[in-house]
Fold this protein.
Amino acid sequence: MSSISLKNNKDKLPKDSEDIESINGIFSWKAIAGQYVPCITRVINGEKLMFVSVRMAETQLLNKYMPYLHADIYTCTSVRSHFITDSEANLLNEINIKHYNGFYGKDTFYAGKDYIVRLEDVHELYTFIEVCFKKLQCNSTPSLSEKCGFICINSESVVPYCLKDGHKYVPLFYFEGETENLRYHALKVENWNLAYLKFCYKVQGIRNELYSSDSCSVISLDDIKNYFPPDTHFEEYWPAKLIDTQLLINQKSTHVNPPCAWIRAPP
């Protein structure tokens, strides 16, 4: 935790402001993937919540993978962002200049222009794009703890799955013939679990309009197995050659993803 000295009289500060800690010049560093990233705090409904600058997250963390992933990958996610306040802009500028010697760029942070997102969303996004990058490289051996992947049934049907609470879940709409019976065992996935499923849909070449919803009905792979004969073979699978190779950008390409492609801009 660090504090930047204030020039103003603290007695005049609005103590109920959500950015009161930024007004007081307080910030901290949090470790993400071995990197210590500056975090600021907002007090919302009495709870202190940690936020990270979108520009700082991209510069220090996400650019390890973002230049190599097509922007279409980020349509799988929906990370809510917030505009920074004047006090937060002042604090971020001081962090960049005094603590990082301009590492985050020469551009000034501005209120109403620059964004912040929740710390946990940066954690989740980094993991997501790392998984996407490694899987698109097709050089990782499938394991039982994969965030997502495919199950090949009897070497014929290929069904995507996501991992939730240690269990594999597959989309209900892949089993249309048995939908009524399976519906009683179904649950809905959303947010990051859904992002991994949507990534698999893209790998499989399914049209975007078929999975544009913010949630998806799924059923556990264990329940699905009960509807197949006992000798049915279920095997972990990942395509050796991808249908949509455009999801990976060639390192020699001149294509550059625009900043903030992964966030949902505030209204």
